[in-house]
Amino acid sequence: MERIVIRKARAEEHEVISALALRSKGHWGYSADFLEACRAELTYDAEECESGRMWVAEFEGADIVGFTLITGAPPTGELAALFVDPLAIGTGCGKMLLQHALSQATSRGYARLTLDADPGAEPFYLHFGATRTGSSPSASIPGRLLPQLTFSLPSPS
């Protein structure tokens, strides 16, 4: 198995990252119309990519297979994105990205990270220590509620 490397995203990768987000969302079996309604929310610009808060995962020397984005200011931030290419699901990429994001958030002084999860991904986040704190309306699909989750982070050492 190839080694997964996590590194900061680069501005010029924004189109690749946006396309990956849509492919990843499609993993849950949503219709083309549903995915099109989500396109704007799942589009990332060059500034977000070079913000220093977005990291990508790649098989060493190969294409990007996942990414994560943290937004907000301490003490409470948001895990605004964590997407894995469907071809990389089951490789440990998602776990590595989540652990990296939580570690980065802790070292940057966050006490907690919140997220609005896709219902299909909720068990993944709960498995790694998130707690469900409520529901949040979807920014893309009127009337749809998403699980709102929170990770409580340790104090930085």
TrEMBL record:
A GO MF term: acyltransferase activity, transferring groups other than amino-acyl groups
Residue intervals of the N-acetyltransferase domain: 4-152
Keywords: Acyltransferase, Transferase
Superkingdom as given in the UniProt entry: Bacteria
The protein's name in its UniProt record: GNAT family N-acetyltransferase
Biological source species: Humibacter ginsenosidimutans
